[in-house]
């Protein structure tokens, strides 16, 4: 693995437009901070609306030729991207840890996960199917073809700086779309590095354009309203998603929205408690709790609550919190001071409403934005953290008595991304899985993400799916040709 300085210095910091690295208008830059120390890692280009327009111009100019590139060629570029990411996983992971904070081992996990999207969509690029059908009255034929939607606008959050982009770039490249991607201002480095690596893998100029900016709305809104981009794919919070859907309505853009979550995790009285505790640790603590899939509310049958809570508390209290680059660290800092204060406020509100702290509960020592892994018991349903995404290492426990009560509490949210349930009873597992209002269910396991599976939510957690065999459809338009055979 290279040193911290080498990976930061080896990372591009300019905008990537039309296959060239260019400075932002007026040479403006924005600082990227290490959340473990609060110090500046480096400065990257701070795009203006004019820079954003130049990026869209480049994507539009490259679209026709890219759409005509043989699917096998597009697939091979994705496959090489997968290979390069895998070969360079150590350096890519270190870079991610420096800008985002998660422990290096978790960053490596994300690099592997992100790389898998490129491998998966390398395989999907050559499986874009059409159809042929005899009309029901026998007098004509239907030809169905799938074509790239056109230039895409992609916007990603800071919590998974590589994977959230890979889930969009992989299928867009496979489908034959060009794109402008705007990574989060707090974690632009992983995406800039990925653009460099995809160029090395053979991606032609103009297919992928990257703009980094402190002014997300100012740069992206004109592009969304421009009319030349035909698709907007966003991963981020529900409030921003709502705003973008409104903007996209102007030009009737196709949209994919991967928005917020408020995942319930249900532990029934017949659950295998080893699996339930392991699953809860994973569902809660992956990415330090800063995940849309994070278990936000843990509902446990009253008969197993004491045992479950003491085992979970023991595991949470033993976690090693620190700078993600240090050996043995299991939980890094939160992304910034605002997020740390929000977690502290949610915990204080729950305690004021009667919750008991079993472990943690406070901001942790240090210059960075650390919060102690926390377990809260007897959390009332009126507590704010039952309604809002915590996005931190806090596990709130609430007891239930009946299956109906558990399902009702689980569904009592405007979100519907993922739910987890732990039970050994097959009938209950299927019955409850059907009743839970979520796009994904973790059944006796605390992780659902897999590039080969359709990821996405219902209700206000979003529109569309990423990954799986349907992931590429988000970047393809279906065309039907009515054929006269007389
Ligand atoms: P966010 O504030 O919504 O930001 C997400 C992205 O949108 C960032 O790149 C941000 O830029 C940009 N943005 C903000 N305002 C914008 C605007 N007016 N126009 C265009 N772009 C705008 O979310 P976040 O705090 O980064 O991420 C956490 C949220 O993402 C959580 O709610 C989490 O659940 C959700 N998430 C969902 C999934 C999923 O698959 N469903 C996965 C991961 C995260 P700046 O960086 O400049 O603010």
From TrEMBL:
Active site: 258
UniProt entry tagged with the keyword Oxidoreductase: yes
Domain Aldehyde dehydrogenase residue range list: 21-481
GO annotation (BP), single: gamma-aminobutyric acid catabolic process
Domain of life: Bacteria
InterPro entries for this protein: Ald_DH/histidinol_DH, Ald_DH_C, Ald_DH_CS_GLU, Ald_DH_N, Aldehyde_DH_dom, Aldehyde_DH_Superfamily
Pfam family, one: Aldedh
Keyword annotations from UniProtKB, A to Z: Oxidoreductase
Molecular-function annotations in GO: succinate-semialdehyde dehydrogenase (NAD+) activity
Family membership noted in the UniProt record: Belongs to the aldehyde dehydrogenase family.
Name of this chain's protein: NAD-dependent succinate-semialdehyde dehydrogenase
Organism of this sequence: Kribbella jiaozuonensis
């Amino acid at each position: 693995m290279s040193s911290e300085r080498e990976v930061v210095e080896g990372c591009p910091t300019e905008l990537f437009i039309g296959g060239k690295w260019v400075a932002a208008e007026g040479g403006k830059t924005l600082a990227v901070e290490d959340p473990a120390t609060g110090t500046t890692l480096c400065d990257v280009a701070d795009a203006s609306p004019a820079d954003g327009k130049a990026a869209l111009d480049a994507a539009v100019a490259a679209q026709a030729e890219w759409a005509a590139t043989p699917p096998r060629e597009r697939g091979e570029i994705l496959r090489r991207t997968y290979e390069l990411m895998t070969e360079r996983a150590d350096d890519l992971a270190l870079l991610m840890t420096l800008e985002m904070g998660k422990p290096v081992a978790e960053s490596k996990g994300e690099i592997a996960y992100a790389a898998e999207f490129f491998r998966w969509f390398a395989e999907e690029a050559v499986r874009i199917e059409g159809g042929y059908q005899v009309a029901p009255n026998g007098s004509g034929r239907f030809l169905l073809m799938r074509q790239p939607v056109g230039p895409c606008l992609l916007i990603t959050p800071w919590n998974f700086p590589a994977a959230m982009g890979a889930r969009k770039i992989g299928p867009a490249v496979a489908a034959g779309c060009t794109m402008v991607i705007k990574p989060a201002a707090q974690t632009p480095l992983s995406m800039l590095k990925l653009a460099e690596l995809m160029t090395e893998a053979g991606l032609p100029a103009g297919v992928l354009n990257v703009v980094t900016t402190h002014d997300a709305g100012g740069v992206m809104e004109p592009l969304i309203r421009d009319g030349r981009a035909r698709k907007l794919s966003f991963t981020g919070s529900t409030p921003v998603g709502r705003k973008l859907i409104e903007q996209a309505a102007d030009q009737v853009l196709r949209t994919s929205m991967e928005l917020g979550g408020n995942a319930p995790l249900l532990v029934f009285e017949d659950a295998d408690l080893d699996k339930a505790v392991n699953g809860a640790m994973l569902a809660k603590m992956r990415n330090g709790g800063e995940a849309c899939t994070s278990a936000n509310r843990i509902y446990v049958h009253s008969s197993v609550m004491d045992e479950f809570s003491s085992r979970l508390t023991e595991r949470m209290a033993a976690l090693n919190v620190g700078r993600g680059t240090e050996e043995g660290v299991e939980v890094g800092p939160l992304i910034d001071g605002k997020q740390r204060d929000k977690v502290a406020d949610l915990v204080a509100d729950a305690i004021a409403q009667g919750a008991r702290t079993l472990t943690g509960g406070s901001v942790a020592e240090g210059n960075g934005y650390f919060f102690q892994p926390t377990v809260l018991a007897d959390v009332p349903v009126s507590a704010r953290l039952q309604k809002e995404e915590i996005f931190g290492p806090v596990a709130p426990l609430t007891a239930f008595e009946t299956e109906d009560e558990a399902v009702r509490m689980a569904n009592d949210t405007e979100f519907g991304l993922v739910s987890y349930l732990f039970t050994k009873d097959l009938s209950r597992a299927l019955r409850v899985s059907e009743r839970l209002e979520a796009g994904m269910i973790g059944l006796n396991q605390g992780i659902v993400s897999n590039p080969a599976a359709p990821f996405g939510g219902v209700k206000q957690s979003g529109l569309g799916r990423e990954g799986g065999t349907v992931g590429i459809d988000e970047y393809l338009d279906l065309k039907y040709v009515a054929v006269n055979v007389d």
